[in-house]
Amino acid sequence: MSAGLVPDSVVQSPYLSFVRHGFFTRIGGVSEGPYASLNCSTRSEDDPAAVTENRCRVAGFFGLPNESLLGVSQVHGDGVITVTEPWKPGEGGKADAMVTARPDVALGVITADCGPVLFASKDGKIVGAAHAGWRGAVGGVLEATVSAMEALGASVEEMVVVVGPCIAQASYEVGTDMRDAALTADAQAASFFVSGQREGHFHFDLAGYCMDRLRRAGVTAVASVGLDTLKDERRFFSHRRRTLAGGGPIGHQISVIAAGSGVELG
């Protein structure tokens, strides 16, 4: 375990036990106030020194220095960057996913209700990480990540993909505008909406929809960790929870994968 982190700092999936990965929680960092404590967003108004220390702890979990923990400027789109050379912290391009075959870097996506999705070839040599909110999922970011991994030599039939902690259907109330936009882009999304208690409102199953899109793309080994970021305030930041409370600053958790044999919690 990296210095400062505790077992509750990381959620791991047995489906990805063969590769280095972790869905990190908000526990085990040095940030304070609304960012407490393992806030890893470089775009927040948190103390930059605290964010750097938090990211160093995450990178250390993989036995890597902070500069090897890569991220992108997430825009809720379908862009994917294939990492052939690392970049300086905070200088990632605009995209919502990364793939690589380099074992000396770790790919991190930032979330606070959206779905962090980690990909690996079954030999652990090619990995990917995607940020999938409803816009990105409907827009094809998951399929784009699969295609980028295939371009590196991974076979879709040999991929394992896990959807990490995100807002659960029971917590994710949306209006008709969001539902209509999703159905216009993908009519098959209809089965992932159920009627809400309020007229004109629905509840959307983000994790289930992400898994369905992956299966339609040909991935057969798909799973979800099944954790609700809104309900679990102790372990997760949540944009929707913050909105319901009236707004204010918020931290973000990070989910990370790196090529190479898995590391487990000590």
From TrEMBL:
Protein biosynthesis listed as a keyword: no
Substrates-to-products reaction catalysed: adenosine + H2O + H(+) = inosine + NH4(+); S-methyl-5'-thioadenosine + phosphate = 5-(methylsulfanyl)-alpha-D-ribose 1-phosphate + adenine; inosine + phosphate = alpha-D-ribose 1-phosphate + hypoxanthine; adenosine + phosphate = alpha-D-ribose 1-phosphate + adenine
Superkingdom of this protein's organism: Bacteria
SUPFAM superfamilies attached to this UniProt entry: CNF1/YfiH-like putative cysteine hydrolases
InterPro entries, A to Z: Cu_polyphenol_OxRdtase (IPR003730), Cu_polyphenol_OxRdtase_sf (IPR038371), Cytotoxic_necrot_fac-like_cat (IPR011324)
Record flagged with keyword Magnesium: no
Gene3D superfamilies assigned: CNF1/YfiH-like putative cysteine hydrolases
One Pfam family here: Cu-oxidase_4
Keywords from the UniProt entry: Hydrolase, Metal-binding, Transferase, Zinc
Matching PANTHER family: PURINE NUCLEOSIDE PHOSPHORYLASE LACC1, UNCHARACTERIZED PROTEIN YFIH
NCBIfam families: peptidoglycan editing factor PgeF
Family under the similarity heading: Belongs to the purine nucleoside phosphorylase YfiH/LACC1 family.
UniProt name for this protein: Purine nucleoside phosphorylase
Lineage: Bacteria, Pseudomonadati, Pseudomonadota, Alphaproteobacteria, Acetobacterales
Gene (UniProt): pgeF
